[in-house]
Automatic annotation (TrEMBL):
This is Helix-turn-helix domain-containing protein. It comes from Fulvimarina endophytica.
Length: 75
């Protein structure tokens, strides 16, 4: 589920992302699940965006606030 799957994968997976944002790994995994299955439908809670953007910057990745929007809203 996008954009969560792409961001989580780029940052090293659910376990690493969970450490970055200080939540349990299953919560991060839920970002990548459809709403019908108890997930967020690919949406990462916006409160985590600053930490994820900073972590991406530290590893040389480019991540912006627009990357957190679903493709239909980002255009």
């Amino acid at each position: 589920m996008e954009p969560a799957s792409t961001i989580v994968t780029a940052l090293g997976g659910p376990t690493k992302v969970a450490k970055i944002v200080r939540v349990h790994r299953t919560r991060v995994s839920n970002w990548c699940r459809p709403k019908e299955k108890g997930g967020t439908g690919g949406i990462i809670p916006i409160k985590h965006a600053p930490a994820l953007i900073a972590a991406a910057r530290e590893t040389g990745l480019t991540l912006s606030a627009d990357d957190f929007l679903p493709a239909s809203e980002a255009a």
